Amino acid sequence: MSVAALETLLERRFHAATVHAKAAPPRGGWSTGITDVDRALGPIGVPHGRITELFGETSSGRTTIAYALLAACTARGDIGAYVDPDNALFAPAAGSAGIDLKRLIVVRPSEASSLRRAADALVRSGACAVTVLDGCSAEVLQPHHYARLAAQAEKNGTSLVVLSRGGCQSLASFASLRVHLRGLTPLWQAGSDGGVRLHGYRIALDVAKSKFGAPGKSASFDVHFPEVAGSWWVPACADAPAAITGSATDACRESSA
Amino acid sequence: MHAVNPAPDVAPRIAALVIPDFLIEVSLRAHPSLVGRPVAVADGLSRREIIAANRAAQGVALGMTPKQARAACPGLVVIARDEQRERAAMAELLDALESCSPAVEAIRPGTCCFDIRALPGGETRALGAAVALASALGLRASAAVADDKFSAHCAALTGGGCSVVAPGGSAAFLAPLPVSLLPLAPGDAERFELLGLRVLGQIAALPAAPLAARFGERARAYTVFARGEDREPLRPRRMATVYEERFAFDTSVDRLEPLFFATRGCIAGVAERLAAAAQTTDRVDLVLVLDATNSLTPSPSVVDIRVDLAQPTASGAIMFELARVALEAREQLGLVEAIIVRSAPCGEPPPQLGLFDGSAGSRHTALAAAIARLNAALATGEVVTLTSHPERSRVPERMQSCLPITSPRQLEQTRRSPPRSRPAPSTRTRTTAPPLREREVVWAPALRLLDPPRPMRAPAAQTERAGPFRLSEGWWEQPVERDYYQMTDRSGALVLAFFDVREGGWYVHGVFD
Questions:
Q1: C-alpha A82: how far from its chain's center?
Q2: pLDDT in tens, B278-293
Q3: B182-188 contacts: CB < 8 A, separation 24 or more?
Q4: Taking CA atoms, what residue in B is nearest to A256?
Q5: Which of A26, B26, B82, B239 is deepest in the core (most CB within 10 A)?
Q6: Which of B377, B448, B486 minimises the CB distance to A121?
Q7: Best residue in A131, A224, A254 to probe B by mutation, most B CBs within 10 Å?
Q8: CATH topology for A25-225?
Q9: Residue A77: left (phi > 0), alpha (psi -120 to 50), or beta?
Q10: pLDDT by residue (tens digit) across B387-434?
């Protein structure tokens, strides 16, 4: 089959979706604000108007990268969107990551069809500079959905970021940038009383595919816990000791009482 | 404004409903525990003064400061005026009266007039019904009917209960009443007193021209009022016009294409009528009349679909596009035999063209379109903004709240505030941290919340974990007592788990990702 025939077949199959080999390079991209990651992602970072896939197992660091992108988006005054079918977005954590929650549209579809419609509405409107599809989104969307989303994202300049486990071939095909989050390594620290505390965790990633940069680069960075409980910001407990192990938790309990 | 002009062959009969202590009544509705106690209402920004007091407030005079009033009447409760509550009470009263009469006018807070001619049962019964309606709202009122608004108002104020001024008897009724009932300009009351003009009959007897020469043109209005010749028509509230278009199918349809065809036509009709009236709407209601006779399963005969437009418009194309999305989102509509499209003007002027405001206009339009599409396609409450409330609670699921997005203004009103400074790591953390090579550090762990928490098996004793961090809260209503741990679960994921101290059992509450 000739190249022209193949292109014709693709356009007929995917309703005249753009073939990225011929597309102009994106006008720019998003920086995650993490130097090592930005260096690995290449000259433009996460490209505008393209699909980016962040894939890895549960607890591999995908959400950290997505938060960083949304923080960069809302910091510039743009609107971001987060499609969250699992209701997993935790506002205190997102706020701590720098996301301006007042400029973030959170969509919590209860059905697969609603998720598809939400993704379509967000991308085709061009209102959101960054749209993150989380949870089961990658499995719910079919190849023709990705084709349509890719075309609309390119037309409107929306960066569509899909968090997945990496098993979706059609998403891998349509994504201009694929980042493999290899995993998350806890950073344990010995406490003075013989126990341990979680100092933070380390995220390692590889760039599996990049149409506008060099794939194959790796990066890693550390995420440290700023607070005692380590999981969210607790102002009332900010003066508590930095490490509490065993059952010595009365400092928090007393301050709450 | 629509003025109700009486037919020339029918004498006007206008009823007035007056709530003498409106401010007090409204305050007591909000504070029912104060009924029977001396109460006064104070108003004013720089100098607060008493503007109303009930009969139990002995010795309190209008114009006193709250301190003076309390000194004059020990035990007095002074309440700040709440105009929003007054407006709400007045709106409730008007709504109630409009259930009886089509033409109801709000004269001032606590006073309204309505056309009584068409009401069945006679004037006295109609007045009694109006007083009963007000009483049901917690407002003690008096009512009267006369040939004009001023006479009816005076009769309601002076008569108490229900009063009827006979047709043609307004002048005789008003003659002995004091001139203070007139809407006098400042200083006119003293000047009438100097001239010995104390009752309305004296004003009515004077020729209008000399009075106007001495008092100004406003005195002509005094003469008209005093003679019972006030012919100002009722000016009822603007009645909400609802534009409606219907389409009935020859045979019931169960496919979307004919439904879209009918909807497009109906919406085009509604949009034309809106545009012709220079009005816009922010909402379209689709009513699908289902064919229940051919349905195998019992189902409702009517399906209401509300389509919020996010931004006022009179564009039929926009309305149809969102209606199409809303119809597509509903699966298994059943057999439809008719469709009704309704839309009410929202009162906002048509939006200005965004020709000269750069890209901001197009961004706003795009955002409005996105929100409207999302709301049309998804169920209520599925498109939200999140707010973090770390100060409200320490329990993760109570630390955030969500607010449905209905308008793009919700996302555009607030300019971005400078990012909250991330809590600096404590000194102890820095000193005890293991030596790290040159590596980027992010101080914001991304936690994915599991709500509700997912039960898990108790971790093995040798599992490496940090904790417990005790959270104990809400003992007075929803008690929570948990020991939180950070640990690696059996799949290797770094999770936030807790042991429920009250009920026992282990739960995963979040995953670090």
A1: 9
A2: 788 888 999 988 876 6
A3: B182/B222, B182/B225, B182/B226, B183/B221, B183/B225, B184/B222, B185/B216, B185/B218, B188/B215
A4: B473
A5: B26
A6: B377
A7: A224
A8: Rossmann fold (3.40.50)
A9: left
A10: 888 777 777 888 888 888 888 888 875 544 444 444 433 333 333 333
Q: Cβ separation of B494 and A62 shorter than 8 Å?
A: no
d(CA B340, CA B187): 59
CB contact under 8 A, A114 and B472: no
Name B76's bridge partners.
Answer: none
Instruction: Look at B442 and A188 and tell me if their CB atoms are within 8 Å.
Output: no
Q: Which residues of B touch A129 (CB under 8 A)?
A: none
> How many beta carbons lie within 10 A of that of residue B508, not counting itself?
17
The order of strands in the sheet holding A177-190 is B400-404, B383-388, A104-107, A79-83, A128-133, A159-164, A51-55, A177-190, A196-210, A218-224, B441-442
CB contact under 8 A, A236 and B391: yes
pLDDT in tens, A214-253: 888 888 888 887 654 444 444 443 333 333 223 323 333 3
CA distance B352 to chain A (A): 20
Rounded alpha-carbon distances, angstroms, from residue B58 to A253, B21, B141 = 53, 15, 22
Altogether, the residues listed in chain B come to a count of 513
Q: What 3 state SS string does B320-346 have? A: HHHHHHHHHHCCCCCCEEEEEEEECCC
Residue A255, chain B, CB below 8 Å: the answer is no
Alpha-carbon gap: A196 to the closest alpha carbon of chain B (Å): 6
Taking CB atoms and an 8 Å limit, are A91 and B399 in contact across chains? yes
Cα end-to-end span (Å), chain B: 61
- Rounded to 5 degrees, what are φ and ψ at B124? -65, -45
Residue holding tokens 């620290």?
A189
Domain boundaries, chain A: 25-225
Q: How far is A87 from chain B (nearest CA, A)?
A: 7
- Looking at residue B499, its amino acid is F
Residue to test with chain A: of B308, B465, B511, B512, most A Cβ within 10 A: B512
Task: Please name which of A7, A57, A20 lies closest in space to residue A209, comparing C-alpha atoms.
Answer: A20
